[in-house]
Write a structure and sequence with these properties.
Elements: H1 13-35, H2 42-56, E1 60-61, E2 64-70, E3 73-77, H3 80-95, H4 97-107, H5 111-122, E4 127-132, H6 152-165, E5 166-172, H7 177-183, E6 192-195, E7 200-202, E8 208-210, H8 215-233, E9 247-250, E10 253-257, H9 267-284, E11 291-295, E12 299-308, E13 312-315, H10 318-329, E14 337-342, H11 348-357, E15 361-366, H12 370-379, E16 383-386, H13 389-397
Parallel strand pairs: 4-5, 4-14, 5-6, 14-15, 15-16
Antiparallel strand pairs: 1-2, 2-3, 6-7, 7-8, 9-10, 10-12, 11-12, 12-13
Helix pairs in contact: 1-2, 1-6, 2-3, 3-4, 5-13, 6-13, 8-9, 10-11
Bound molecules: magnesium ion.
Magnesium ion (MG) binds at residues 133, 135-137, 343-344.
Length: 399
């Protein structure tokens, strides 16, 4: 008997993280059974039902789930991703795939049309590689990275697509590698997991590949990270490690949240923290040789620069990541078809790089933003825009 999930009373943030980590193990077993053509263990649906009931039972105040941080402090969380995906997984396991797809179709207007168009774009294609962003693209958005455990249906659909149609499937995110593996539930060895915008990658044999960073630059990065640790350890700034992306040390980049999608931090306080980070970076790197700051409004990303041919000193983007992975993993982007998927402007350089190597790169982007949609469709005719990650996942899973 494998460890399952019991109904638990969640009191602390730590309890919540532990429960979600346990759900990863349960979901991995379900996915392994399903893609292996075996019946799913009977206790798995019961475990996921306990997961759902435990999450739903957390007290809600003003639309936020309230958990203790210890020391008398509490935090209000949006758990809609964790709850919705648990519900969908239970439905998928109990009702089967066909009924599940019908349910998605009832839920999202235009679902069938978008899925049909996607299948048309990829009909008969044999892909050298898939390079896809994760969050907001092939995975629904979650308020926190480390509890955004991949769903069973999601992993089954993506794994099936990868096995049947793609020689080298790559999930490429800006998040750090360590977290990425702990939230994925596809069987080991199905995907390349590239993180930190493609500067580091877990290959399908379990080895880690990294783009070399010079000792001087790594030293600058270590110095920055020590200062960020000190800064966010102060009582007035600690809260920024507990919201949204929190504090993440990636390979060649560090990220600090200054706001989350719910606007939990007072606007002036969030702006003030951005100014503190900007002056810290300027103090450490007065000549602006080592770092570039990118502010998304929610996250402040402090990125190590790279020396590139032609473009000089620039911040490393996902297009640079694709170039590195192409040569490191042998993606053969230049001699065959590829599919590039993303959901934000930071994913566009992946498509630009792929198209620069071969005109036979196709794109599916998940966005409702007109400007981004036009940018993508302006790059190639072989591009499709869909409004929801579940539509992209259904396209790939039913091809
Ligand atoms: Mg994304």
């Amino acid at each position: 008997m494998m460890a399952g999930i019991d109904l638990v009373e969640l009191k602390t943030l730590k309890d919540f993280y532990a429960l979600m980590a346990a759900s990863r193990e349960v979901r991995r077993r379900a996915v392994a059974d399903l893609v292996g053509g075996r019946p799913v263990d009977g206790d798995i649906t019961a475990s996921l039902s306990n997961l759902l009931a435990s999450l739903e039972a957390v007290e809600e105040i003003d639309g936020r789930k309230r958990l203790s941080l210890g020391g008398g402090r509490t935090i209000g969380l949006d758990m809609s991703y964790e709850i919705d995906e648990a519900r969908k997984d239970i439905f998928y396991l109990e009702e089967g795939e066909e009924t599940f797809l019908e349910m998605l179709g009832d839920f999202h207007p235009g679902f069938d049309d978008h899925v049909d168009r996607g299948r048309e774009l990829l009909r008969g294609v044999d892909l050298n590689c898939l390079v896809s962003d994760r969050d907001g693209t092939v995975n629904n958005y979650c308020a926190r990275y480390l509890t955004s455990i991949q769903s069973v249906y999601n992993a089954v659909f993506l794994t099936r697509f990868a096995r049947a149609h793609v020689r080298r499937p790559v999930i490429l995110t800006s998040a750090p590698l360590d977290g990425l593996v702990r939230i994925s539930v596809s069987p080991d060895g199905e995907f390349y997991y590239a993180a930190s915008k493609g500067r580091e990658c877990l290959d399908r044999e379990g080895g880690v590949r990294r783009l070399a960073i010079s000792p001087e630059k790594q030293e600058a990065m270590d110095g920055l990270n020590a200062r960020l640790t000190e800064l966010t350890g102060r009582p007035e700034y600690e809260k920024f490690t507990l919201i949204g992306s929190g504090l993440q040390f990636k390979f060649g980049q560090s990220t600090v949240a200054r706001q989350d999608i719910n606007g939990s931090i007072d606007k002036a306080e969030s702006e003030g923290f951005l100014a503190v980070l900007e002056s810290l970076t300027a103090e450490l790197d007065p000549g602006a040789r080592n770092f570039r700051i990118e502010d998304t409004g929610l996250d402040v990303e402090i990125i190590l620069t790279v020396e590139t041919e032609g473009e000089g000193l620039k911040d490393f983007d996902k297009g640079d990541g694709v170039k590195f992975l192409d040569s490191e993993l042998g993606l053969s982007l230049a001699d065959g078809a590829s599919l590039i998927c993303g959901d934000t402007a930071s994913d566009v350089p992946m498509l630009e790089t792929a198209l620069g190597l071969s005109p036979d790169a196709r794109a599916i982007f998940v966005t409702e933003k007109k400007e981004l949609a036009e940018r993508v469709t302006g790059l190639t005719d072989a591009a499709l825009i869909v409004p929801e990650p579940d539509m992209l996942v259904a396209i790939l899973g039913t091809l």
